[in-house]
Design brief:
The complex is a heterodimer of chains A (about 600) and B (about 270). With about 600 residues, chain A is α/β, with parallel strands linked by helices. Chain A is built from 23 helices and 22 strands. In chain A, strands 6-7-8-3-9-10 form a six-stranded mixed beta sheet, with helices on both faces. Chain A has a six-stranded mixed beta sheet with strand order 18-19-20-15-21-22, with helices on both faces. The longest helix of chain A has 18 residues. Chain B has two domains: about 150 residues, no CATH class; about 70 residues, no CATH class. The chains are: A alpha/beta (about 600), B mainly alpha (about 270).
């Protein structure tokens, strides 16, 4: 069909109007830095797309997002090269405030971005700055709160809200200005699984029903993969993949971490896609891109119709039952109740025993008492006499230093724990204050730095290390005392899955080497499924579950009441097992185990 | 979850919570002026009781909260009272303690001075506990005509204080776990604070930069003026309190100036 020139111009204008983000040859270097953090970025995003940005920590994802509303380069100063146009405005020539009606930016930590103390005030804040008429502001505030499902929350204090609710307020606060583009930087990083599900449901509704364009950085891909329309992968400041989610999760690639270590992209694949790749590999065939599952439903359909060749099934190893040795009793907690005041108890009659040589996960909603309980173990909060015993010794009678020698605590933010200016002095500090001899100190510091792979940085300042290295150093400062128990407070927050895996690998080595018990406070059910021997779930200050992770994930009622979600692979294996009980499939917690189960079932059927 | 700071706003429905911030600010300034101007013990006692009643009934603070928030000041004021009573000269011996004469004039003056400090602390606590910093900032813009950027800077500073306090607690706990003992001496405390500076600075800078991006991303500062949907307004109750306070202050200082006060000063030094 031949078009006239005006028709072509009109089509071009229409197409241009649909372009929300147009980046070409964008390179950005922070002020005072020599290496660019963004390199030659070219990307076009059109109206209605839902783009997921993936990449290892430190690859420039957040900087990329800050570029989308002009925070880079106008607030976070630096040198911007190339052409960057957002909603038709040149980033270099447009102030951040002028993007307020085009781009809504939501950050990782709702505490850091919420300005006001009441929900309604926060949602009105942007429109008040834009000097809109009061009637319009009130109407848009009502609309924004309705969009995020918080219609009745206008008069509530921000301090009364859960993490998920706060993050929904943050989204409403930017939606009130009706931006064309919503940009989110790991908005669920601090949330429990229930809070995360709330946010993802809101985003899906905004994108599907209201056509809002969304660009988002997020590590929790399992629940998001089937909601996004496009995946962009970054490596060292550059885009290395840009395409549909099925294509993104169809084959394994490698990128580089902040420390220039090779990281497999599969570490942030949805578990169901990983399973499909494993299944195809075990079947010795290729997995067509259009068959890569993005949800449990799709994976269930794939596995139900998949026929593994007999010889391939026979070659698979049957999953081995875990025969880990039961350790000796280490910590005993009896009738432990605690509250900062009588009217608001945080822990109510907690009873439990923890053995040596175990990885124990402590789960529960935000505010359920997890951190309080863990802090009582190390004496940060004083335990009532006789309520916590460490190998028979009452913890309330031990000094802080005595407790710290036996129970280490790795805080969420490693920077909080550093007290010296050098890596090796940092590790040596705990030994020096306990009057260890020089030779002993030197030997232990060397050993521990070797274990955490930081020996080459021993003369550096702790603050000059990357986040992953700082976290390893904070672990090292605890390890050097060879504690019997090591408590990890939210080891995965702000970290990609690969980095969390590396940390847990280190924990596993410690357990094997020293018999250390690891108690990790976490919301990450995938981490629990992969690493924990035992799961403890707190609900309103009481132990609601104490047992194997696989038993926890089988209890739907408990999961629902404690705001937890089962890992997708468990859900999938459970559905497959229920589909045909005669196949003898069992629910499992890893992709490899499920492939082995399917192979064993196939081999049995062949006999 | 940790304990909240007693010198921090908490939402409520008391009479004082419902008052606009400017009326409360006028009340606070008025009470402070009255407390400074009243040098007679029985008048200070009356003022203190009025403020205590205000805290209990109009601001709905519990006795336990008041005690928790002001006990260090009660201790300091008590010490101040004892030292002044013992050391100040006088002529009328009220009583003797271990052969030390306590004069009525010095005790009267000491009591007035001590209660003055406590009254100001307690009234400040009532103000802070019942006034949302945001409402105060808006009142400063809409009623006192202070530029909104300055008022918001003040509000953000107040808003961020509890976060920094919380972070200091976490750092202190993290250092205790490392085996760092808490210091008791002043130099030790200074050294302790020096160790907190870097992590605190790193955290505060990160938070401040997020807050700036969050505010500017929502057009803060785009225009010289801004709209306030919910600006607090002075209502009849606020007007009554403001006028009563101003009248009381003017009356007291006029009475002082005109010499009507001194005749009722029973224990006036000779």
């Amino acid at each position: 069909m031949n078009r006239t020139l005006p028709e072509v111009d009109s089509l071009q204008a229409e197409q241009d109007a649909r372009v929300v983000v147009a980046l070409s040859g964008v390179t950005y270097t922070y002020e005072g830095e020599s290496a660019p953090v963004l390199r030659d970025i070219a990307l076009t995003v059109t109206s209605g797309e839902f783009v997921l940005i993936l990449g290892p920590s430190g690859c420039g994802k957040s900087t990329f997002l800050y570029l989308l509303n002009g925070s880079v380069p106008h607030i976070l100063n630096g040198a911007l090269e190339g052409a960057a146009t957002i909603c038709g405005k040149s980033v270099a020539e447009t102030k951040v405030a002028e993007f307020a009606t085009d781009v809504g930016m939501v950050f990782q930590d709702p505490e850091a971005q919420i300005i006001n103390t009441r929900v309604r005030d926060e949602v009105c804040f942007g429109l008040e700055n834009l000097c809109r008429p009061v009637n319009e502001i009130v109407a848009r505030q009502t609309e924004a709160l309705r969009l995020v499902g918080l219609t009745e929350f206008g008069d509530r204090s921000i301090f009364e809200l859960s993490g998920g609710e706060k993050q929904r307020v943050s989204i409403a606060a930017v939606l009130a200005a009706r931006p064309r583009l919503l940009v989110l930087d790991e908005p669920t990083a601090n949330l429990d699984p229930a809070g995360m599900a709330e946010i993802f449901a809101v985003l899906e509704r905004l994108n599907r029903e209201h056509g809002t364009t969304i660009i988002m950085v997020e590590h929790r891909v399992d629940e998001l993969a089937d909601k996004v329309s496009r995946v962009v992968m970054m490596d060292r400041g550059a885009i290395v993949f840009d395409g549909a989610p099925r294509a993104a999760f169809s084959s394994r690639r490698v990128v580089h971490s902040e420390e220039a270590v090779v990281v497999p992209t599969a570490s942030w694949f949805p578990q169901v896609s990983e399973f499909a790749i494993d299944l195809a590999a075990a079947s010795r065939c290729d997995l067509p891109v259009d068959q890569v599952p993005l949800s449990v439903d799709e994976a269930f359909a794939l596995a139900s119709n998949w026929s593994m060749p007999a010889e391939a099934a026979a070659a698979q190893n049957k999953p081995q039952p875990d025969e880990r040795q039961q350790g000796t009793p280490l910590l005993s907690i009896k009738s432990l109740s605690f509250g900062y005041d009588r009217n608001t108890p945080i822990l109510r009659g907690v009873d439990l025993e923890i053995q040596s040589n175990a990885i124990v996960a402590l789960l529960g909603r935000n505010g359920s008492g997890k951190t309080t309980l863990a802090r009582m173990l190390v004496g940060i909060n004083s335990a009532p006499a006789g309520s916590i015993k460490l190998e028979g010794r009452d913890i309330s009678r031990l000094s802080a230093r005595e407790i710290a020698s036996e129970i280490g605590y790795v805080f969420q933010n490693p920077d909080h724990q550093f007290v010296t200016d050098r890596v090796d002095e940092e590790v040596a500090y705990s030994l020096k204050v306990r009057d260890f001899g020089q030779e002993e100190i030197a030997a232990r510091v060397d050993e521990v730095l070797e274990i955490v792979d930081l020996h080459r940085y021993r003369a550096r300042s702790p603050y000059n290390l990357s986040l992953g290295e700082r976290r390893r150093l904070s672990v090292a400062t605890m390890l050097v005392l060879q504690p019997r128990v090591l408590v990890l407070d939210e080891p995965t927050i702000g970290q990609d899955h690969e980095r969390a895996q590396l940390l847990m690998g280190l924990m596993d080595r410690l357990r094997k080497r020293y018999g250390t018990t690891i108690l990790m406070i976490t919301h990450d059910v995938r981490l629990v499924a992969e690493w924990a021997d035992r799961a403890l779930v707190l609900r309103s200050g009481r132990i609601a579950f104490d047992g194997r992770p696989i038993d926890l994930f089988a209890d739907d009622g408990l999961l629902s009441s404690t705001g937890l979600l089962a890992p997708p692979i468990h859900e999938l294996s459970r559905r497959l097992a229920a589909q045909d009980p005669a196949r003898g499939l069992r629910p499992v917690l890893s992709s490899g185990d499920l492939v082995s189960e399917l192979a064993a079932s196939r081999a049995m059927a062949m006999k | 979850m940790t304990r909240g700071n007693v010198f921090q706003f908490r939402a409520g429905k008391s009479v004082f919570h419902r008052l606009d911030p400017m009326s409360k600010l006028i009340w606070l300034l008025g009470v402070s002026l009255l407390a400074f101007g009243a040098y007679i013990a029985w008048i200070q006692i009356v003022i203190s009781f009025v403020i205590l009643a205000t805290a209990l009934f109009l601001a709905r603070l519990s006795p336990a909260e008041i005690l928790k928030g002001t006990w260090p000041f009660i201790a300091a004021c008590s010490s101040f009272f004892v030292i002044q009573s013992v050391t100040l000269p006088g002529s009328t011996i009220a009583f003797r303690v271990f052969s030390i004469s306590i004069y009525a004039e010095s005790a009267d003056y000491a009591l007035a001075s001590s209660l003055r400090i406590y009254t100001i602390i307690l009234s400040s606590m009532v103000f802070v506990r019942t006034t949302d910093p945001r409402d105060l900032a808006i009142a400063l813009v809409t009623q006192a005509h202070i530029p909104y950027r300055i008022a918001y800077a003040f509000f953000i500073a107040l808003r961020i204080v509890p976060t920094i306090e919380e972070e200091i607690k976490i750092i202190r706990a993290a250092h205790a776990v490392r085996g760092v003992a808490r210091q008791r001496s002043i130099t030790g405390r200074i050294g302790e604070m020096q160790r907190y500076v870097i992590p605190l600075l790193v955290g505060s800078l990160r938070r401040a930069s997020m807050m700036v991006m969050s505010m500017e991303g929502r057009a803060f500062g785009a225009y010289p003026q801004r709209v306030f949907v919910d600006a607090p307004r002075m209502r009849a109750s606020g007007l009554v309190i403001s006028i009563s306070t101003i009248v009381a202050v003017v009356a007291w200082y006029s009475a002082l100036g005109l010499g009507y006060v001194h005749p009722i000063y029973v224990f006036a030094p000779a």
